[in-house]
Design goal:
about 425 residues, alpha/beta, globular, binds pyridoxal-5'-phosphate
């Protein structure tokens, strides 16, 4: 009877998908209409899921409403960019005031340097920074800088990690990836990685690491792994880059502040633009000085919207008035508490289910085995994740199909208790499908 649970899981998944399709005619109609002008119907691949993605009409505080006017607690939080919740009054005020004074000002403007200074105060690795428009751009700029400065060609990243739309190693290197010679190393495997660094030491310009794997499953790097990478790159003159596009929210001074390890360069994006389009990279002055246009053979780093006035003002207000260092401590403590509560529920039901992560970012996994690398996630039965996603939407909670859950600032104990109750109900009602 070994096949029986799989058959049941497929049947349950089909039933859940059918129920979802029936309940969401507005999202289905929207997806069909959008598929004419937009290739594939969705502007961000990660938002697509079968049979069609939920489409939204508005958001307020910790909640979002879809095209059929169902209300959801928003635990997706726009893949960590939506940390402020929706319609934040400080962001509204800041954007309105900025618009009143014009937004395409042609030159450097008075809002840029204060924002850059605030970012440098916040993240230890930032001695100097430059702005870009997304996390993908920030990473491309950082790897280009490392290649230009070291004169080397290769870049190391880790299997299963994600550094942007064209820097995607989630299922091996994506065919659309940025064409530099990549060296892919095993995450959290220091010996395996050091062997690859030794092998390629004359070619490696940079090592890129997510200090906690985000989209690949909220898998924290072990401290000794990061320490070992820091030491090896320093010894061999390789630029060590923390991709903190997601993780910078996990402590008052980013993840680098939490682990006490300072990389050569850091890249950020997401919420740090106050909800608007944003990216930045920066680090050691001796690397960043190559952008000094009065220097010898300066490097260009251009982009029409790099100093977007709206982003600079909304980002500064967000950093100084909303996601302050105290707010970061508080939100991440609430996330740690939620993760403990959800893991206790899995234990209560005696199920091989676990929630990994740090602070305000967590991810469900359907296994009792340790999750130390993205490949451990891919070995689990991902159909259970899909079922979880459908069942959580059915209980008015929206999260990523990958099972990633993020907290936002307007959430109170009401929303936290709400998601714990929804997970409890899922584990109880689907117990027989989740045991194996
Ligand atoms: C770790 C990491 N790096 C880079 C990116 C790319 O950022 P963006 O979507 O702003 O291009 C992401 C996006 O999710 C990310 O999670």
């Amino acid at each position: 009877m070994a096949m029986q649970p799989n058959v049941d899981l497929d049947a349950a998944l089909k039933e859940a998908a059918d129920k979802y399709a029936t309940a969401n005619p507005g999202s289905r109609a929207y997806h069909e209409a959008a598929s004419k002008p937009i290739a594939g119907g969705v502007g961000r691949s990660s938002l697509y899921f079968r049979p069609f993605p939920l489409a939204f009409s508005r958001g307020e505080g910790a909640y979002i409403w879809d095209m059929d006017d169902h209300r959801y607690a928003d635990f997706m939080g726009d893949y960590t960019a939506g940390i402020f919740g929706h319609n934040h009054p400080i962001t509204r005020r800041t954007i309105t005031e900025t618009l009143d004074n014009g937004i395409a000002l042609n030159g450097p403007h008075k809002h840029e340097a204060p924002f850059a200074e605030a970012l440098c105060r916040r993240f230890p690795a930032f001695e100097q920074i430059r702005f870009a428009n997304s996390g993908t751009e920030a990473n491309i700029w950082a790897l280009s800088l490392a290649r230009a400065v070291t004169g080397r060609t290769h870049v190391m990243a880790f299997e299963g990690c994600y550094h942007g739309g064209v820097l995607n190693f989630e299922h091996g290197p994506a065919p659309v990836n940025y064409p530099v010679p990549w060296v892919l190393a095993p995450y959290n495997d220091l010996d395996g990685t050091l062997a690859l660094i030794d092998k390629h030491e004359n070619d490696l310009a940079a090592v890129f690491v997510e200090p906690m794997v985000g989209a690949g499953g909220c898998i924290p790097a072990e401290r000794e792994f990061l320490r070992g990478l820091r030491d090896a790159t320093q010894e061999k003159g390789i630029v060590f880059v923390f991709d903190e596009v997601m993780t910078s929210r996990l402590g008052p001074n980013g993840y680098q502040g939490e682990v006490g390890i300072t990389p050569d360069l850091t890249t950020v994006s997401k919420y740090l633009g106050g909800g608007l389009t944003f990216g930045a990279f920066g680090g050691r002055t001796d690397l960043m000085r190559h952008y000094d246009q009065t220097g010898e053979k300066p490097l260009p780093q251009a982009g029409t919207f790099n100093n977007n006035v709206l982003t600079m003002t909304a980002g500064l207000a967000a950093l100084e008035e909303i996601y302050t260092e105290d707010a970061a401590r508080d939100l991440n403590a609430r996330g740690d508490d939620l993760r403990r509560r959800l893991n206790a529920l899995a234990s209560k039901h005696g199920l091989p289910v676990q929630f990994t992560g740090v602070g305000s970012m967590l991810n469900i996994h359907f296994t009792a085995e340790p999750i130390r690398a993205p490949e451990d996630v891919l070995k689990t039965d991902l159909r259970k994740r899909d079922l979880f996603h459908f069942d959580m939407m059915d209980q008015d909670h929206f999260l990523a199909r990958t099972g990633m859950i993020t907290l936002s600032l307007p959430m109170t104990e009401t929303e936290i208790a709400g998601i714990a109750a929804a997970v409890d109900e899922f584990l109880a009602s689907r117990k027989s499908l989740l045991t194996g």
